[in-house]
Amino acid sequence: MKTSNTILIFFTLSLLFSSSFGAVQDFCVADLSGPQGPAGYSCKNANKVTVDDFVYHGLAAKGNTTNIIKAAVTTAFDSQFPGVNGLGISLARADLAPGGVIPFHTHPGGTEILILLEGTLCAGFVSSSANQVFFKTLNKGDVMVFPQGLLHFQLNSGKGEALFFVGFNSPNPGLQLLDFALFKNNLPTELVAAATFLDVAQIKKLKGVLGGTG
């Protein structure tokens, strides 16, 4: 009986403590004039918040796909869309010309869910357990999820343009492109070769294409 009472008292005090000191607010619109920390941006003065902080028009326009990957990604993260700061959500739009690709990349800060609106995609990810590959050809209306932190890609495998939108469970999921991480840096080519088992000539070629040095 004494043990039960002790647990009950502890539980009650825990509820009172969390109720008394828990910060409750409707939103935390990003103050883009300040620095961004691990938890996002600090909150904009509530008296300066307007409806425009909760509306974003940037995903309406098609991105420019005249580049090496024939693709464009337009983000609606907290740095572009202040209203999502602190809410655990964000969006992005991807336009892919025929043959366009979003190369292998990771989002260390969030899981991604994709819905294909136009075209045909080959999309997939690699698990961290035994490097198991999960990939599928997606058609208009299909949805696919990419777990947080795993390497994944999207390739326009159709004859026309492809358009998809993605959602994240983070206001800023982060991004690291594998090709850029390997070949758009100033590491000596010999070190990259030793760490990747790739041919030195091929590494130098890729560094030249992607802007790396060393």
From TrEMBL:
PANTHER family: GERMIN-LIKE PROTEIN SUBFAMILY 3 MEMBER 3 (PTHR31238). GO terms for cellular component: apoplast. Residues 57-204 form the Cupin type-1 domain. Belongs to the germin family. It holds the Pfam family Cupin_1. InterPro entries: Cupin_1, Germin, Germin_Mn-BS, RmlC-like_jellyroll, RmlC_Cupin_sf. Mn(2+) binds at H105, H107, E112, H152. This is Germin-like protein. Oxalate binds at H107, E112. GO terms for molecular function: manganese ion binding. It comes from the Eukaryota. Residues 1-22 form the signal peptide. Disulfide bonds join C28-C43. Its main location: secreted. It is found in: Secreted, Extracellular space, Apoplast. Keywords: Apoplast, Disulfide bond, Glycoprotein, Manganese, Metal-binding, Receptor, Secreted, Signal.
